[in-house]
Hints:
By secondary structure, this protein is mostly helical. It contains eight helices and no strands.
Amino acid sequence: MKTVKKISLALLVIFIAIQFYRPEKNLAQGDHTEIFLAETNPALELRAVLEETCYDCHSNNTIYPWYNNIAPISFWLANHVKDGKKHLNFSEWDSYSVKKKDHKLEEVIEMIEDGEMPLKEYTWTHENARLTSEQREAIVAWAKKTRSLYQLNGIPQ
Length: 157
């Protein structure tokens, strides 16, 4: 039993110690998605859906839940955000080439149609991020329309 107590005590000490180390938070100042919204022009209802379901992981600003203050959850969330931004970052839309924007929208369509986004583990704790079939259809229709404009003109009007 002494070994179990020592291991438990060591784990407790480690758990307490990591509470003092935090990953950097993903917080942007100002309207970090302004260019994306102006260029792709989603309807107001769709803007709200994108903000609620996508921006936490796919922009330069995350609204953190209370449990982000507990390590190792904070590190797990930081990793998810970093990975999400690596795949698509609405705040960096202006830095993408037209070809890359078109490809990103193609991926949005695939992920939404396949039910891969938003991630299941995100919707477990963010009930409002669960997309209805109408919201899925609206995102896909908007992304397809925007892609066609990129393919025709380079930049949607």
